[in-house]
Amino acid sequence: MCCDGTLVNGGCSGTTICSLSEKTSGIPTCGAYVAAVLDQKGSTRCPPSMPNYYENADGSVKGCTSGRRSPDGTGPASANSGTSCTLYSQEIDDIEKLDSCTNKKLLETSKCFSRNIDGVTSQLISNKGNPALVQCTYKTTPSSPPETCITDSSLERYMDYLQVKGWRETTATWDPLQKLQFCSVAQRYAIDKTLTFEDLPKASVYS
């Protein structure tokens, strides 16, 4: 048995957390215990396509994989066991690097528009020295040239990172082309046609 605490007279004075042999008396095997701990961590950190979280003993290497973890949970089972991403220890690396799990999760969970629109694609784009952005590409008609916008969630993260105080309340004063970078505004203007170009100078991103 493994004890989370001190041993007193051969017994665990803390909590018996797992068994190094077989599962017994409701105590899981240590392999199952470690897997459950890693799954719990991964539930909030990993992108949906790479749900299997791993980390090494000192926590210096962390990431997620689409394939199986190694038996000790310190990495992917093999180099070709699926796609992987990295959880960086430095915040700027974690939000800037395109291979970070944080950015992969943002890409997979961000919505370009409030409703389903055929042919829309999204990708992470570098914003060197700043948080990466999720760019959406769309067409207003099948024959029209491609247009792009940035998801509101990734632009909001970028503006908050710059620590621009009260920026949400001032978007009505922004240049119209700045506003059109937000996918929510691009949808109202180019797709739903509920916003005209004449409306843009006074329109707020959050109206």
Question: How does this model look, in words?
Answer:
With 207 residues, the chain is of the alpha+beta class. The chain folds into 2 domains: 25-109, no CATH class; 110-202, no CATH class. The chain has helices at residues 30-45, 91-96, 101-109, 152-161, 176-179, 183-191, and strands spanning 2-4, 7-8, 11-12, 15-18, 52-55, 62-65, 84-86, 121-125, 133-138, 147-150. The mean pLDDT is 93.
Defining traits:
6 helices; elongated; 207 residues; alpha+beta; 3-stranded antiparallel sheet; 18% strand
Strand order, main sheet: write it out. Answer: 5-6-7
Helicity range: 25-40%
Largest sheet: 3 strands, antiparallel
Number of domains: 2
> Which segments are poorly predicted (pLDDT under 50) over 5 or more consecutive residues?
none
Q: What is the alpha-carbon Rg in Å?
A: 23 Å
Overall morphology: elongated
Determine the structural class based on helices, strands and strand pairing: alpha+beta
Number of DSSP helices?
Answer: 6
Range of strand content: 15-25%
**What's the number of extended β-strand segments?**
10
Distance between the termini: 59 Å
Mean pLDDT: 93
Order of helices and strands: EEEEHEEEHHEEEHHH
Brief summary:
With 207 residues, the chain is an alpha+beta fold.
